[in-house]
Amino acid sequence: MKVEFLGSYREDLPKDHFKEVVFVGRSNVGKSSLINMLVGEPVARVSKEPGRTRSINAFLLEGRIKLVDVPGYGFAKVSKAERESWKRLIESYFRERRQNIRCVFVLIDSKVGPTDLDKLMIEWLRHINIPYKVVLTKTDKASQKELSKSLELLKVVGVNEVIITSAKEGKGKKELYRSILEVVEG
Question: Which residues make Cβ contacts (< 8 Å) with residue 85, sequence separation at least 6?
Fold first, then answer.
């Protein structure tokens, strides 16, 4: 798979015509790891410390699809001012790029299940009418009981279709790629 790093942005997002898919989730849900697994190479910086993604990072997949990794929400050890800055950045991104965004992939840790912040993100995406899909991450670390509980909790918030992944094991790569192609080409 051909992938190119386009840039890291904290403001002045570039104007272009590419169709975009966006990856959102808690600070340590594994957005960067999932992107790396998807494209087959370490293009997104992965850190053990939550909240390392502090800007919007864009990658061009196959010369035509923009993958966008936004700062995580949740418990990153950063100042309140930094969190507010991220919030403004993300809201600005969604406002400015709305016409380009084809789908938002909401990543949820399969061990933890949907948190209140995940539920708020899903509600917000529904409210602003942006298509989304839910991706459960880190399934290699979750027991069958934890995975089942996460799936049940997602059904409660009206999510019935879920992509099950493990960046470590490469699980769900084909399904995720197929889903991206469907939303971009469909």
Answer: 10
Q: Distance between the two ends of the chain, CA-based, in angstroms? A: 20
Alpha-carbon distance of 107 to 30, in angstroms, equals: 8
Q: What is the pLDDT of residues 34-93, one digit of tens each?
A: 999 999 999 988 765 555 557 899 999 999 999 999 888 875 566 777 767 777 888 889
Residue pair 118/26 in contact (Cβ under 8 Å)? The answer is yes
Do the beta carbons of residue 32 and residue 69 sit within 8 Å? yes
pTM over 0.70: yes
Quote the number of domains for the chain. 1
Q: List the CATH number of the domain containing 131.
A: 3.40.50.300
Q: Is 74 left (phi over 0), alpha (psi -120 to 50) or beta?
A: left
Cα angle: 118, vertex 122, 123; to 5 degrees = 115
Backbone phi and psi for residue 9, each to the nearest 5 degrees, phi listed first: -130, 140
